[in-house]
Amino acid sequence: MKKPKVAFVCVHNSCRSQIAEALGKYLSSNVFDSYSAGTETKPQINQDAVRLMKEMYQIDMEKTQYSKLLSEIPQVDIVITMGCNVNCPTIPCKYREDWGLNDPTGKNDDEFLKTIHSIHAKILELTEKIKIMR
């Protein structure tokens, strides 16, 4: 069976969704393909997120990822919204989930670390759900 495609979506595609894409690839690339996108873009990925992901996982998100629009990713099977607190766009999919994560942008490293740890745990939970769905 082919791997499902998962889209991690938030407004600017610059922080939480980028972290989720990177951790999805890092932790679960054997179970699903990870993409991230937003309804708007930023010129670069959040630099605190980039720095902390390098420190924690040795992942340089800027090497393989960039802020992109929903129209720039393939059709997906699963949509995970980060908790935009705005009207998230409707994207055709077989399964949808909202993670309700607060945006750590502009906050201290502790807030970023909480968000990264939460995304890590949620990626592992999602991986198990996908294994069961198959």
What does this structure look like?
The protein is of the alpha/beta class and 134 residues long. The protein has a single domain (5-133), classed as Response regulator (Rossmann fold, 3-Layer(aba) Sandwich), CATH 3.40.50. 40% of the residues lie in helices and 13% in strands. The chain has a 4-stranded parallel β-sheet, covered by helices on one side. Helix 2 crosses helix 4 (109-133). The N and C termini lie close together (8 Å). The model has no long low-confidence stretch (mean pLDDT 94).
Q: Quick one: biggest sheet?
A: 4 strands, parallel
How much strand content do the residues show? 5-15%
CATH architecture: 3-Layer(aba) Sandwich
Average pLDDT level:
94
Q: What's the number of structural domains?
A: 1
CATH class: Alpha Beta
Order of helices and strands: EHEHHEEH
Total DSSP E strands: 4
**Shape, principal axes of CA atoms:** globular
Any idea what the radius of gyration is? Answer: 14 Å
- Low-pLDDT runs: none
Helical percent range? Answer: 25-40%
Q: Structural class, from secondary structure content?
A: alpha/beta
Which strands sit side by side, in order, in the main sheet? Answer: 2-1-3-4
Distance between the termini: 8 Å
The CATH superfamily title:
Response regulator
Q: How large is the count of helical segments?
A: 4
* CATH fold name: Rossmann fold
Keywords: Arsenical resistance
InterPro entries: Ptyr_pPase, Ptyr_pPase_sf
Organism: Holdemania massiliensis
Domain Phosphotyrosine protein phosphatase I: 4-129
